[in-house]
Amino acid sequence: METSAAAEVTGICRDLLRIDTTNTGDPSTTVGERVAAEYVAAKLDEVGISSVLHESAPKRANLIARIPGADRSRGALLLHGHLDVVPADASEWSVPPFAGEEKDGFLWGRGAIDMKDFDAMMLAVVRDWQRTGYVPPRDIVLAFTADEEAGMEFGSQYLVQKHRDLLEDCTEAVGEVGGYSYTVNDNLRLYLVQTAEKGLNWLRLNATGRPGHGSFIHDDNAVTALAEAVSAVGRHRFPVVVTPTVRRFLQEVSDALGIDLDPDNPEIAVAKLGPIANLIGATIRNTANPTRLEAGYKDNVIPGKASATIDCRTLPGQAESFLAELREIIGPDIEIEHIQQQPAVETEFGGALVDAMGAALRAEDPGARTVPYLMSGGTDAKAFATLGINCFGFAPLRLPPELNFAALFHGIDERVPVEGLEFGVRVLDRLLRNS
Ligand SMILES: [Zn+2]
């Protein structure tokens, strides 16, 4: 079934890749989000879908459009994709990262899998509907966001806070990161559907002491106290906790692979997973990694204060117990300052939409089997989930078995298989028609 959506998805994705939407985290050097949102608006407008751009700050544009469904009494389905990308250093790439080059069956460029591929799929599908007069079963809300790659403040969080009314009736959401294949053998591919995300908690540890001269005996040194706390955190292994999503993942995978996995002993289980072990390793425990240090201003002066940043990622339901454990590790004298906090999210792997995902995949790939997974990072789903929306990561892609997909996220030579894009459009179309 070669729909015209499949025929145009590659061109749309290429156009989007050629718009540099680098998000550096610094608004003064972040570019392109407005240009990309205007491109999306024009593509929608071309087929008669009106949309509105919502700027959270100059040129930080978010786009929202609504396609009325047949049954308007049902809750809407939110489809979302971010338009920004992480920076790319052209000197490290084998092709220019913002040229949208096509070679060896792939479309290359920063954002090819994160996530202009899905942005293009959404556009291709709804444009095809509009051209053929197709009306989806329920309202579809399209959201193209800014700032997913640097905290979401100017993107999904802004939409949720300032334009809640546009999203409020959405009951489910489909976005990144999931829907891609992991090949077990010729007849079996696992497609990982993201149903949960770890929480993010960036903390600053502050140690204070008595300032003084570096030549004296000094037993109240802030740098020493901080260093002890930081090394204790960095060396600590948090205990294994198997959340419902991970338990289900391990059961499904063990069944699919025909290997014996004990969900109560997941470390052994995870080690058996081969190439996907990496993906899962960080999803069975909380983590806390020291990332920055700051102290002192002169070689012979003991400063009164020293601080360190810790990047903490917590499992669903673990935020409070994690903090209690962290306090135990660092002791009572270090102050904990919260820099940024985003809760973990988890939704059930079940229901009509999940069934429709499986059916849509199997129609295009008879060897498909869906499994839920918990993602160790975070996405726009965190913001949308605060509205009570059940969020799924499902941007369908059938991948060549040899491709190290996980390494391409924010990686060098990011690329998406053209056949995978076309496959994704067909699966997304089927899913939405049965949602
Ligand atoms: Zn992304």
UniProtKB/TrEMBL annotation:
CDD domains documented for this protein: M20_yscS_like
Name of this protein: Peptidase M20
Stored Gene3D superfamilies: 1.10.150.900, 3.30.70.360, Zn peptidases
InterPro entries per record: ArgE/DapE_CS (IPR001261), Bact_exopeptidase_dim_dom (IPR036264), Peptidase_M20 (IPR002933), Peptidase_M20_dimer (IPR011650), Peptidase_M20A (IPR050072)
UniProt similarity note: Belongs to the peptidase M20A family.
Alphabetized GO MF terms: hydrolase activity; metal ion binding
Source organism (scientific name): Paractinoplanes tereljensis
Domain Peptidase M20 dimerisation: 195-330
Pfam family, one: M20_dimer
Top-rank taxon, per record: Bacteria
Keyword check for Lyase: no
Keyword Ligase among UniProt keywords: no
Keywords: Hydrolase, Metal-binding, Zinc
Cofactors required: Zn(2+)
